């Protein structure tokens, strides 16, 4: 099993001015071979104590466990799917686009998120058509 790791590359190349005392850390949970991590943790103000503003949000992902591997720590019935997470992002950007924050960059991001969701739906339809459902086939 691969150990937890800090995820990078999600922040913009030029970050807007922020409170220098506030920071975010995105960590991917442990990962078994041939699996993506099944949980992520976002920690706000990791250098502070809980009383001073440190908090964390755990984001478990739905998965279908491989019976050949040891059980993973999160029950497979719990968690979000990639499609659900994309749906949240699409909904937020669509709301921005319908108001005063509409811009070409949001429109492009929205189009690509919709394309990503469409690709995942096509993958699911293909797997269902082949009768392989939630397996490794």
Order of helices and strands: EEEEHH
Shape: flat
Q: Hey, roughly how much beta strand do the residues contain? A: 5-15%
Rg is 18 Å
Explain what this protein looks like in three dimensions:
It is a single chain. The chain has 137 residues and is an alpha+beta fold. The chain has 2 domains: 1-74, no CATH class; 81-132. The protein is built from 2 helices and 4 strands. The protein has a 4-stranded antiparallel β-sheet, with no helix packed on it. The radius of gyration is 18 Å and the shape is flat. The model has no long low-confidence stretch (mean pLDDT 77).
Which features characterize this protein?
alpha+beta; 137 residues; 15% strand; 2 helices; single chain; 4-stranded antiparallel β-sheet
Fold topology:
Elements: E1 5-7, E2 24-28, E3 39-44, E4 55-60, H1 82-97, H2 104-130
Antiparallel strand pairs: 1-2, 2-3, 3-4
Structure in a nutshell:
The chain has 137 residues and is of the alpha+beta class. It has helices spanning 82-97, 104-130; strands spanning 5-7, 24-28, 39-44, 55-60.
């Amino acid at each position: 099993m691969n150990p937890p790791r800090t995820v990078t590359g999600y922040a913009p190349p030029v970050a807007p001015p922020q409170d220098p005392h506030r920071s975010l850390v995105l960590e991917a949970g442990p990962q078994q071979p041939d699996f993506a991590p099944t949980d992520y943790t976002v920690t706000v103000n990791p250098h502070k104590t809980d009383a001073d503003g440190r908090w964390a949000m755990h984001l478990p992902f739905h998965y279908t466990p491989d019976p050949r591997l040891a059980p993973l720590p999160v029950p497979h019935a719990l968690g979000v799917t990639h499609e659900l997470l994309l749906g949240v992002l699409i909904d937020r950007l669509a709301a921005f686009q319908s108001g005063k924050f509409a811009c070409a960059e949001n429109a492009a991001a929205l189009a690509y998120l919709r394309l990503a969701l469409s690709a995942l739906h096509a993958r699911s339809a293909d797997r269902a058509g082949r009768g392989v459902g939630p397996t490794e086939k």
